[in-house]
Amino acid sequence: MCQDIKCVFCEVKQTLLLQETRYSRLIINYFPLGKYALLAIPKRHLPLITDLDKEEITDLIILYQNAIKIINTNNEAPPLIGWFNQGVETGQTIPHFHLHIALYEKNGNLKPIERIGNKIPINDELLVNIKKIFAP
What we know:
five-stranded antiparallel β-sheet; 2 helices; alpha+beta; 24% helix; HIT family, subunit A
């Protein structure tokens, strides 16, 4: 749904796509901040949550909620955290609104994995395991 814009969320790699709805996608984070690092993103290229219309935000939140339920069902309800950044000043690095989900660990596991060029730094084993959890 993005037009004439070069955006990693608009051009999602199929290997990272977990679920798709009419208005939203659930993907594995390109640069995970911990185990089960997922992103719920609207299909339309919009930078801020306030830019989404009622149908888009409803669809996105339901997708986000379902993702958490699936993780909880398959992992005995691990502690998860969710957040979003609203604008560059708050740390939003991609100007396409997105919601984060990640496993919370007391030792502060939310540290970005070092980027190596354009390579996706998620290992194959974790990618396969997450895909299994979300398989229909």
